[in-house]
Design a protein that fits this description.
The protein is α/β, with parallel strands linked by helices and 289 residues long. The chain contains 12 helices and 9 strands. The strands form 2 sheets. It has a 6-stranded parallel beta sheet with strand order 3-2-1-4-5-6, sandwiched between helices. It has a 3-stranded mixed beta sheet with strand order 7-8-9. 50% of the residues are buried.
């Protein structure tokens, strides 16, 4: 088992760090929130007073932070502290450019880094069933894989540094757009006189099926248990979906890619968040239709 520094114990990071401790790793955990540190301690981690203390002597340093600027700031502070043999694993969802920049900066300091954003949400973080999309060299992926596997069900090498973030934002652009389309279809079906359960039974086994339909239906009482069954509490917040769509749109602009459906999805979630609904699950977008 490894000594791991874990920095960022929010809704996702808390469950991830707990699963590493459950697997027997020596997890030194840091967050700015005292409550998060208390929860980490209860889950078997050793809470520490700073990111530097978490990183000192660690074989792996895992970060789960809100945005690229936070990752860059933490990495800058850790470069003089991290062991030369440590691997840096950033599981945050950030822009592709920053992911590449911090990896290059790490390499210049003689360190190995990967970007490894996740899919699966809070439930999967707590259950240890996340999917990791990893950007980095083949050697770096091999070193990170065993640690990531202790937090997830799938660890996939997407390519060079930045490829993990590229895969994440492309995947979530699909998710945002298909959720809106799924919501529109349920509302249209209802207005056409179709029973919601009957429509689900048909669409979930027909060419219109998608993850948003079969696994995460946006109506209560339809399909598996989802946030819709809990007044759209929990799950994947609309504000986080908006964050990922913004990253996707920024990346598309940078490279000149035409993403009209992604842009429309971002526009709808922007309005939803501005209306004060960003804390609800992203499937609550059905309430706007």
């Amino acid at each position: 088992m490894a000594r791991i520094g874990f920095i960022g114990l929010g809704n996702m990071g808390g469950g991830m760090a707990a699963n590493l401790a459950k697997k027997g790793h020596d997890v030194r955990a840091f967050d700015l929130s005292a409550d998060a540190l208390d929860k980490a301690k209860a889950a078997g981690c050793l809470p520490v007073a700073s990111a530097a203390e978490a990183a000192h002597g660690a074989e792996a340093i895992v970060t789960m932070l809100p945005a690229g600027k936070h990752v860059a700031e933490v990495y800058d502070a850790l470069f003089g502290i991290a062991s030369p043999s440590a691997i840096l694993i950033d599981c945050s969802t950030i822009d592709v450019a920053t992911a590449k920049q911090v990896a290059a900066a790490a390499q210049a300091k003689g360190l190995v880094a990967v970007d490894a954003p996740v899919s699966g949400g809070i439930g999967a973080a707590n259950a240890g069933t996340l999917t990791f999309m990893v950007g980095g060299s083949a050697e770096a992926f091999d070193r990170a894989q065993a640690i990531l596997a202790d937090m997830g069900k799938a660890v996939i090498h997407a390519g060079a540094n930045g490829a993990g973030q590229a895969a994440k934002i492309c995947n979530n652009m699909i998710l945002g757009a298909t959720m809106i389309a799924t919501c529109e279809a349920f509302v249209l079906a209802e207005k056409l006189g179709l029973d919601a359960q009957a429509f689900y039974d048909i669409a979930s086994v027909s060419s219109g099926q998608s993850w948003s339909m079969t696994t995460y239906a946006p109506l209560p009482g339809i399909g598996p248990d989802t946030p819709a069954d809990h007044d759209y509490q929990g799950g994947f917040a609309a504000a986080l979906m908006l964050k990922d769509l913004r990253l996707a749109m920024a990346a598309a602009k940078d490279i000149g890619a035409d993403t009209p459906m992604g842009a429309k999805a971002a526009e709808r979630y922007e309005a939803f968040a501005e209306a004060g609904q960003g804390g609800l699950d992203f499937s609550a977008i059905i309430r706007t239709l």
